[in-house]
Structure formats: structure tokens, C-alpha cells
Amino acid sequence: MIKGEVLRAVGDLLLDAHGCYIVKTLMERMPPAELQALVNTIAEDESLVFSMCTHSLHTRRAVQYLLDTVDSTFISRLIVARIEEVSTTQQGCIVAQRAMDCAKEPFKTQLFDAVLDRFIEFATDPFANYVVPVSYTHLRAHETPEHLVCRLLLEKKKKKITNLNIHKFKVI
d(Cα 152, Cα 58) in Å, to the nearest integer? Predict the structure, then answer.
């Protein structure tokens, strides 16, 4: 009876500090088939998943539990699509780091690429800067973190220089 009540209100409970703890505790005790059914319900609501990634310590812990125990492709897909919004929040940067550790291919590479594409912006953000060192594990062969920074800076500058050359007669 209690489990049924909890499952009917799972979306609201997952965004409440105390309710989230109850749902996480329930998930830890569910048989795998029931847990997967619950996860499928959660995965249908992208705004709920995004809120769970960024809302609070309690919701982040529930996301981390899902990343560690079930097929969490839906979380990885959301983080890839909204990497800036997730990584620039206090809880989201922790979720992004865990996702980079736990994601399966091709999402793992997509996560690293998304971070590296925003390397300079993330390096100066108060929360996203924590995601940057995790991306070092995705370095090219024989590339040090220093080489990575130089390569990314040059690539950014190269794009701007190329853009200026293409539009050299454009009034800026």
C-alpha cells in the first residue's frame, strides 16, 4: 500500500528533500524489474530528470544511485544535451563528473567532447571548473593537460581568425 502511494507521487517526492530520501530508500530495496519500471517512469519526464540533476544534495544522491545501478542512458543523454546548464550548478557539476565516470559509449565520448568544446568557459566557472580535470582522462595519446589547454586555446583562436578572414570586409 505505501509503495503504491509513493510510486503514484514519485515526481513530486523526488524533488522534496525528505521525499527523495524515501524514494531512494525504496529504490535500494526494489527487485530489479520493479526498479527498471520506476526508472522508465522517471526517464519519461526530462524536466524531472534535469531537476534531479541540479536541484539539491538529496536529488543528486538519487541520480548518483541510478547512475551506479541501472541503465542510465537517459541521464547521460540529458547531460550531453544540457551540459552547460547542468555543469554550472553546484549539484549538477557533481552529477556531470559521475556521469563521465559511469556513462557507456557513445555517451561517454559525447560527454567528454561536450566539456572540451566548452573548456575555456568551464575552466572559469565556479562550478563547471570541477568538471574540467575529469576531461583530462580523455586526452590524446602522449598529450599532457598543458598540451590540451594549449591545443584548445589555439583551436578557439583559429576559429575566430578563420571567421575574421572570411568576413574581412564586414564592418565590425
Answer: 35
Distance of alpha carbon 128 from alpha carbon 90, whole angstroms? 8
Tell whether pTM > 0.70: yes
Q: Give the CA angle between residues 72, 77, 78 to the nearest 5°.
A: 100
Q: Name the helix (H) or strand (E) containing 109.
A: helix 107-117
Residue 166 has pLDDT above 80, yes or no: no
Whole-number Å distance between alpha carbons of 78 and 157: 29
Residue with cell 561536450: 114
Summarised one tens digit per residue, pLDDT across range 2-13 is: 667 777 788 888
Grid coordinates given for 28 = 535500494
User: Nearest Cα to 10, choosing from 48, 53, 54, 58?
Assistant: 48
